Prior knowledge:
By secondary structure, the chain is an alpha+beta fold. The protein is built from 1 helix and 5 strands; from the N terminus they run αβββββ.
Amino acid sequence: MGSFFTTILNWLRNWYAWLVALIRRLFGGGGTIEDDKCCHLARPDNECRYFGDKASFSCPDGYYRQWWHCCEGTQLIGCGECTTNTSTCWSGSFECSIWWWTTQPC
């Protein structure tokens, strides 16, 4: 009987570890950005939250998604920020920043 409970407990631990790994892989952001590549981000201290792909980043209420591209060597990089400005990413109050690899060459 004890081995049955041990088996169930181990299964639950493995399932929980798998679930945590999945959540960490799908939901990200909120930390420091180590290297902002060619983006010159306003807030490398606060990465924007994202679900799945970093290009799908989200902004808190009152902030707007602004994004652009730049070249890092021969690779096109996507850059984004959440700002209070509705028309440009070059001004406003910034909440967070993010960058992501694209599949396009420069």
